[in-house]
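The protein record quoted in full:

***
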Amino acid sequence: MKRTTIKDLAEMLNISTSTVSRALKDHPDISSSVKLKVREAAETFNYVPNDFAINFRKKSSKVIGLIVPEISMFFIPSIIRGISSVLNKEGYHFFILSSDDTSATEEQNIQTCINSRVDGILVSLTKETKDFQHFQKVKEMEIPIVIFDKIIPHHSFDSVIFDNAKNSELCAENLIKNGCKNILAIFGDESLDITQTRMDSFLKKIGEFPEIECKTIFCESADVVKEKLDILLSQNNFDGFFAMSDETLIGLHSSLIKTNLHNSNIKVIAISEGTLPKYLDESYQFQINDGYKMGIIAASELLKIINKVDDDGSTRRLPTTHLI
């Protein structure tokens, strides 16, 4: 069954499309009897207003594009919930695009957002993204963008990130206070700015205590963590572990279970969204990275920019970075 349009209703009732349109909007120039007939016909034939056409006339799609490196069980769902809580309240819809952690797909996703006439874009960058060349068209068209979580050094767009240096330092302090002397620090993708920031801060704090030995490894997935720990745990006696993310933590946990080390007097701390550690092992400690809060802040900042554009027609402003 095809979608019923205003034109269809007008033909059924033998009146003009403009009369139907004004009747549906409860315009005072239209009589009560005509309004009633139009509404009855609209309900009978399941007429649904074309939001895209309405918003197009208003020069607003009320749609936001959300681009993430990949859809996973770690962290991203909580960010999406935060974004949704803000956008839905303000009458916006959004669609989610996965870049498969490649800059080529990210570029395609940017074009999809442009073609879809989005009012703004929320994006977490891929591990391959080294510059903003493929964002140039968006910038020229003055489509508001807020980058969150995974970023690269830039001065082009607003961004929302965790205080990665502080969180890593706090995790290091936790292991130090617990008397750990032989620590394994597990980091993610070595090419990412977030990994380097967390590693630099963690090792800087540990380096203040020469008696502490610390080994670092880089793992792009939980499976890689398990592969590397199969060897490391058989050759070393670590008394403290740091996992820079939920993904690295779940790989660590699996290895500790396999070697029965989870029952020993070791200390484990992670930077986490907060849910996973409590289900894995109640003894695990964590420094929380609240994805829900990040989603709220990122969406709120984007709407501020969009509303600024509505007010003065320009996005020319100094970008800011919001630390959580």
In short: The chain has three domains: 6-49, 59-162+292-322, 164-288. The radius of gyration is 26 Å. The mean pLDDT is 89.
